[in-house]
Backbone:
């Protein structure tokens, strides 16, 4: 999280619904260049709830990726599949 | 069965083996994780993944070489899960028609903009908290998080894998993440974090 001074930021978001939708698009890499530019460079600088949400969502996404995948399929499963297909 | 409506292909036995080994098998670990997160059972997920790969081989001529094998395989696995496992467990789908509505409800939006969870609390979740929270979600919500956040599928790919419109993908994902945050904030409270 950046150490930007938060005292000047708005405590309430003026455009909640749109911002929530925008945040999701950005998080998932589905936003356009203009949307990213507006939200990440302008809106996050001035809106505290959106700033906090953005960093929260990023952290959750990162945790999901590191904690919930990366495991290996059991080797006997891999062998079984290969055997069945090889014999097909 | 096919993800894109590709015309039926014709492959030699050797080509089939090549596609299977070089395009399908590299996804085995992601497929197993998907199967495991859907069934929450090691034996069931093995069966599910094996069935999926055998089906994929049987219908290999519906797959166009060099296209999105991962999405194609995920779609077969998800369909097998719905047909073979969900029926067995008789678990009705709890995702209802309110999902789009809830997304746009203004009280809900007010609540979502200030979630009951802080990023600091997440830093202490170094064990199984996230994984348990994910597994505790209803399977339809779990699925969109797996596809998007774990596997990195794009919305249009998810729409094809799940046979739902992109708008539904987005609203379901949005709701799934809110439910996940609720679970995580329960853990945060148990860990002694004060919520805002
Ligand atoms: Zn805002
Ligand atoms: Zn904005």
Residues:
């Amino acid at each position: 999280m950046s150490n930007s001074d938060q005292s000047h930021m708005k405590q309430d978001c003026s455009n909640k619904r749109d911002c929530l939708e925008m945040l999701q698009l950005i998080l998932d890499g589905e936003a356009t260049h203009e949307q990213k530019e507006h939200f990440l460079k302008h809106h996050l600088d001035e809106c505290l709830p959106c700033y906090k949400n953005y960093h929260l969502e990023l952290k959750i996404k990162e945790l999901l990726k590191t904690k919930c995948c990366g495991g290996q399929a059991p080797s006997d499963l891999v062998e079984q599949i290969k055997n069945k297909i090889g014999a097909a | 069965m096919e993800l894109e409506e590709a015309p039926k292909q014709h492959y030699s036995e050797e080509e089939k083996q090549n596609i299977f080994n070089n395009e399908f098998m590299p996804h085995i670990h992601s497929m197993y994780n998907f199967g495991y997160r859907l069934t929450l059972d090691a034996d069931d997920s093995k069966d599910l993944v094996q069935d999926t790969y055998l089906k994929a081989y049987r219908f290999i001529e519906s797959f166009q070489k060099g296209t999105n094998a991962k999405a194609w395989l995920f779609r077969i696995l998800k369909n097998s899960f719905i047909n073979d496992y969900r029926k067995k467990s008789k678990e009705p789908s709890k995702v209802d028609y309110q999902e789009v509505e809830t997304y746009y409800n203004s009280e809900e939006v007010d609540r979502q903009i200030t979630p009951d969870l802080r990023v600091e609390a997440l830093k202490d979740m170094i064990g199984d908290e996230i994984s348990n929270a994910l597994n505790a979600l209803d399977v339809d919500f779990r699925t969109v998080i797996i596809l998007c956040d774990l596997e990195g599928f794009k919305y249009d790919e998810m729409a094809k894998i799940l046979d739902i419109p992109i708008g539904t993908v987005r609203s379901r994902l949005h709701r799934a993440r809110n439910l996940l945050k609720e679970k995580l904030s329960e853990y945060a409270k148990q860990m002694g974090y004060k919520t805002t």
In short: Residues 13-89 of chain B form a domain with the Rna Polymerase Sigma Factor; Chain: A fold (CATH 1.10.1740.10). Residues A 15, 19, 39, 43 surround zinc ion (ligand 2) (CB under 6 Å). Residues 71 and 161 of chain B are 6 Å apart (CA to CA).
